[in-house]
User: Fold these one by one.
Assistant:
Number 1:
Amino acid sequence: MSAALEKRIEALREKIRHHEHRYYVLDAPEITDAEFDKLMNELKKLEAEHPELVTPDSPTQRVGGKPREGFVKVRHSSPMLSLDNAYSEEELRDWERRVHELSGRSDVEYMCELKLDGMSLALHYSGGQLVRGITRGDGSEGEDVTSNVRTVRSIPLSIGKDKLKKAGIPAEFEVRGEMLMPLAAFRRMNEEREKQGLSQFANPRNATAGTVRQLEPSITAQRRMDFFGYMLLKDGHTYFDRQSKAMDVLEAAGFKVNPNRKFAKSLEEVWAFIQSWEAKRDSLPYEIDGIVVKVDRTALQQELGFTGKAPRWAIAYKYAARGAVTQIEDILVQVGRTGKLTPVAALKPVPIGGTTVSRATLHNMDEIERLGVKIGDWVEVERGGDVIPKVVQVVDDKEHPRGHKNFHMPEHCPVCSGNVVRTEGEVDHRCVNANCPAKLQGTILHFASRHVMDIDGLGEALVNQLTERGLVKNVADLYRLTKDDLLKLERMGDKSAQNVLAEIEASKKLPLERVIYGLGIRFVGERTAQFLAEHFGSLDAVMKVGAEELEEVNEVGPRIAESIVEFFADEHNRQLVSDLRKAGLTFTGQKKQKGTKLAGKTFVLTGTLVRHTRDEAKKMIEDAGGRVSGSVSKKTDYVVAGSDAGSKLDKARELGVSVIGEKELEELAVS
Ligand code: IVH
């Protein structure tokens, strides 16, 4: 191995780490995305050619973990505590009084930090390498979620020895902080889930908890999580003499530390900070639910100690939830693209955090039963960052008597009168009429939306008019619209009509993956559409293959494969595709170039692989033109066996199929 090559690889890694830090931690990139991709691609290529040089801290190794069956429980170095809360200035002053009394001093200094609304995590570093990420769990014991933690780009996988030394951080240390899902990522994820007919996460905190405990690291990676550090420990103890110092040091070492913090010399300054953030919190790209006030000096913290589960040296000032009490005047039912019926509370309009709220989602029948909501009830309604308002609980007191009218899910669709069914084991009720106009409207809105065919100007009002007048019966009809058609509609002038038509025309040039995504196949989201386009290179190819071949595509399992086959088996859908083809949409794309070394060869992977994750091994085989199958048969050419291989290995031996190890696979697949 040439030393020059190793040097080049290390130089690329250093550069990439530097630019990841600029982009994900400091939010101040120095190079374009394309330039960054170029560096990453060069590194990936070199590592693929020399797999023996891949190290776990390489920036290419963020998504390396294989799907897990569960998480291992791990004890914390010292308990991960929670905080006592204060809900008013008075309660905050009470806390300060106790601090003064217990410490016998009145010149206490404080560190004020945002109370980030996510989930706390402990990260362990050894020799500068991230070795473990653990959830809080019950405070004494959490779960090892290292492979998920590694996918969070603002968490450094390694920190250079010089940097540690300069920052004064010991070789073995622990960083505790908050993992969270930024609002933009949360909105996008819920939009995507809605489109796929999946249930929504109620708020970013729940979404974070769900994502941290994802068994599939590649899903965590897609969800664009973030992490802010706020504690630096050594052997379970605070390492620096001040909290403010620890924050600065963490920042200098390359961790993302929240810049909105303040060292305060008095409670007056603390209070001013709290008040200033109450108004500003809506402008943050993530949610906070208060301000954490910590005694700054570590020595004083130790003197003050703990009560039960919380330190006496810190307190969380909680902002009032942006909520209000109002009355449910009615419960309406909305029908979505997948036919899902969503109960929505029609509220007596009430102002919450600057906007008037008159609707709140009740999600589904289970939620209505859980809340015990009746029409006429007074309820507490809450609104998060910009999440859809939701009903939190029923209020029942003298001024707010209970309502009497029970809500029932209609047996017939409120839009088309079609039958409504609730499949066993599912929470949602659905309209089963394939021609339900609500489904049609939802389908067209999905098709026109920004991440799909990006037809600007084709919003709800226009889509409703187009479908109600029968001008558009499916998405292909959009491409037959004329200016005369549009001019007949309300609020449609010459200029707008022209713009809409130009937008529709422009959408024909969008790539194949958008068209696949736009078809609205259940479970086929943006990413899956991309993988399908790359794998097959044309829509015709996707339509032709069976479930088994579909499952060879990255991240496509039996459920998605089945849904795709079902979609294209339907006569109406085939007609739709044919109409879209006639309209001139993009039906072919760039098939990802593959080698031919293993063309026609079938592999089965079994046991625990150590040099590669399953996904990597699969990719290596596919990139060389081979395919990976789930079960061993006479047609299998090779079984790649890791440790603890079981029945598949026995079967291979029985059938006389060649059994190879990971190293041999590399030799076969990589030239
Ligand atoms: S300090 C003993 N600082 O709030 C110290 N916690 O209610 C405890 N949190 O479990 C943690 N932002 O998940 C601290 N700047 C911050 C925080 C913060 C959010 C969360 C953390 C903790 C919970 C306690």
Number 2:
Amino acid sequence: MGMKVLVVGGGGREHTIVWKLKHSPLVSELHCAPGNGGIAALAECHAVDAVDVDGMVALATRLAVDLVMVAPDDPLAAGMVDALEAAGIRAFGPRKNAAIIEASKSFSKSLMKKYGIPTAAYEVFEDADKAVAWLQDQSMPIVVKADGLALGKGVLICATLAEAEAAVRSILTEGKFGKAGSRVVIEECLTGPEVTVLAFTDGKTMLPMASSQDHKRAYDNDEGLNTGGMGTFSPSRIYTPEMEAWCMEHIYRPTMDALNREDRTFRGVIYFGLMITPEGPKVIEYNARFGDPETQVLLPRLENDLMEIFLAILDNRLDTIRLRWKPESAVCVVMASGGYPEDYRKGHPISGLAEAAQVETATVFHAGTRRDGDALVTAGGRVLGVTALGADMEQARQRAYEAVSRISFQDAHWRTDIGIKK
Ligand code: AMP
Ligand code: GLY
């Protein structure tokens, strides 16, 4: 008898997790809440909001699932894993006291400082006047961040003192990010390429996954506003085995050990957002979960059974797992609604998905889509993540873009340079 699994969330990352679990002989039944138009083809979707802790516990109880996989940041920060466990349901993901490494930047900065984990120098402020007074002596550019979860929008890179003052006032005085902005972290501005490394951990073993890189800006050549991510590729060309060994010793293991020492043992996936500075890799941010759209290039390369890894983590025997990766490169191109990350329209019919899936190795992961009768329509800013593999990055790129060219919806926007940057 296989297991019944409920995945919490409804974006491209969750579609990819459901797609990967669908390949597992250990899984016999898949549910997702709330899911989306693509997930509905692989799992039974339930209309429970991803942040509704009580609703999710009730759903998991009613379905009598064997495991709940909590994928997004908000429910993890709200303690959904703790609530499920309290109800006697197995749950994959960090508890609230460990998910805080993403939910509070001031917490993660002080953790890194206390345990000597390389990161940008910083100060924390709750009072706007004090922050502005301190800023007078700082060199620009400087980075101002809202403390809490702000949909990836709470980070402001300020070129001038005036911009930095305005950023502080917008967060602390005008409450631009609500409660997430009751504190600010002001940081030294680092330079260098960014690499994402996700790692599985059960609190004893740290198992880094293959590297990847995200393209966060809306337009080609890294122009336009920051988004949730417009595309990814894996592996990174700059993250060498030597760098991985160095990060293991100075960043990954120390992070796991620090959380254990603080009685905040982390079980799940830790996201290390690294900047490769001239002085070496430094942590830009921790997330307490799989990245989106990093997952869309990692899980298609992962040869292991994902369910086997989840169970090993829950049983504290991750040391028995060895990750195996396809040697192929992967590229994921996000197709977004015109206007994203600002205002955009929803409800446009999407066509060409079957034709796109004909491209060798291509898989279309749905982010913001919804079924409307027989049609599939846009339902979010990021609509689709089109992934393809290739013998090298160029072949993966060609295939992904060939698949993209077969898909259409009104005002679709995508970057044409995913996978090119170093
Ligand atoms: P975060 O939401 O913390 O990932 O920040 C979003 C983006 O802002 C990062 O991916 C970086 O590109 C940039 N960023 C954040 N912190 C710094 C920093 N200290 N120096 C330079 N860039 C930064
Ligand atoms: N791709 C960035 C994130 O998942 O936070």
